[in-house]
Amino acid sequence: MKKIHLYIIGLIFFATLMLFFSLDNIKGAKPNILIVLTDDMGYGDVGFNGNQMIQTPTLDSLAKNGVVIDRFYVSPLGSQSLASLLTGKYQIDSDGLLTAQQNQGESSNEQNIAEWLKNFGYQTAYFGKWQNGLNKNKNPREQGFDYFFGFKDRTSSHFDVKLEYNGIPAQSKGYITDVLTDSTLAFIQRNKKQPFLTFVAYSTPHEPYQVPDFYYQKYKALSLDHHTSTIYGMCENIDFNFNRIIHLLEHLDLVENTIVVFLSDNGPAYLRYNAGLKGRKAEVNEGGMRSPFILSFPKGNLTNQVVYTISAAHVDLAPTLLHLLKIPFREELFDGISLVPWLKENKKEFPNRYLYEYIQNNTAGNNWGAVRSDSFLLVINNQNQQFYNIISDKYQRKNAINSYQEEANRLFENYNQWLSKAHINNTNSDTINHSTRVKLAVDEAFWKLRMISGEELKNNAAKTNLSDDSIYWELTIQNDGNYEVLVMCNWPTNPVVSNYELSMGKDTLCFTLQSEDFSEYPNSANGEITRNTDSINRKVFKAGQLNLKKGINDLVLKMERDTASTIEIVAVELNLISVN
Fold first, then answer.
1. CB 462 within 8 A of CB 568
2. pTM (2 decimals)?
3. Residues 373 and 499 reside in one and the same domain
4. Range of 388's domain?
5. Boundary residue ending a domain (421, 446, 473)
6. For residue 509, which phi and psi values (nearest 5 degrees)?
7. Looking at the domain assignment, is residue 252 inside a domain?
């Protein structure tokens, strides 16, 4: 009997050993993934979408040799798009508000693509702008990424940015896109012998509109205006750095077995060429949600063409990647679908489906939404509706709701059914005492009396002109405690004194900010670089202390009196001093 046991044990050991080696061989053959996401880069900011002024040769070449989905939709705001790209679900279906507010990003309970791939032996890294939540369990390394190098908040400059390396502050040197690319190349080099997921989230061409002078002068010489020259220079710099990554993959003989995805997080914030599409960032029209999109996978036997016949979206990316990797998954886990059958030559008929969008900015109502079918777009602002045939009227020149009332009603009914089943949560709150430091961004706050949308919402760090209103963050206090309050402010350009009040319950902190406290206006780089840029410089002040009581309550910020101009507060930070 003992010999039989030993024999069985030996067989188990041998089988385990063979499984180990076979898995190791499979691991070496697994495709790598590179996702490059840009910030506020419009559909028209690339050469392959008809822009004859901009130079993006690397992207144009990839578009020619990969798959371009012409009608690829993201959300009109970056945090929504990132959450959906990572999870394959609409952010509203992942227990979060579809806003750039305090519950931005995916729910910490959702499984995202990085967590999927870690279970299959992938090394995962995130480089750049993380707009998927600042607090609680929403840090990149708590969301499936082994390695994080970037920032989780706004930056005041694209030069010499203060970054974070796996939770440790890191001062960078140089232009942000170049710096992030340097780290991306190092990660790929280190992990060239094992499968990796590399997610690169460039923070350009988002403001501040800054670029090395070489790029700016190139477009300024074409008689373009200041902002367009700067933005086009930022886009060409993205193309240059993207080429650096592709070149390394070729050098390491990895490019054939690497899935490469390029796209943007929303439409352009600043009006410029956008192929005639209506709308821009923070709007649900075509111009605010259509993104340039390329997918390349030489070993995947994908068709090399521009696909006009399907409408795809950010929620489709995660299931598409899993399908390409031959990782099994249940379709009902995602709001999106795998696009693989339509990215190969043996395409079948595309399903008739709807793509949704919902923007809830605060509790004052006036919520924007949209629903798209293959041919139609219904734009919803409360009960006001605009209806467009986006095949025959792709520029949305005519509201055709009177001509398509039956179809409009069908889309509206379908949208309401989807919305009624979604997990809209107005009470999610940031938890204090979960950590000793909590940062509350002003553009993630709620307005007490009104809703901010459209033009006001775009890049709005100036919500602090609060003479007729106030903003608030809903917080969960786990224990009574005394907190130091820090405020981050934009550098004022004119002499000004601003008085503020920060309160929770009966505890109130009054503080004053004045321009003379800011001393001399700083430069973020040398004169050659900054003379053609729009810098936003910021400073942190100690405002005082607040005693926060256990429970759920609103932390309210308002001005004490009306002033012609204000010092703009960008964020409030609470640091625990003592627990009562």
1. yes
2. 0.82
3. no
4. 355-421
5. 421
6. -120, 120
7. yes
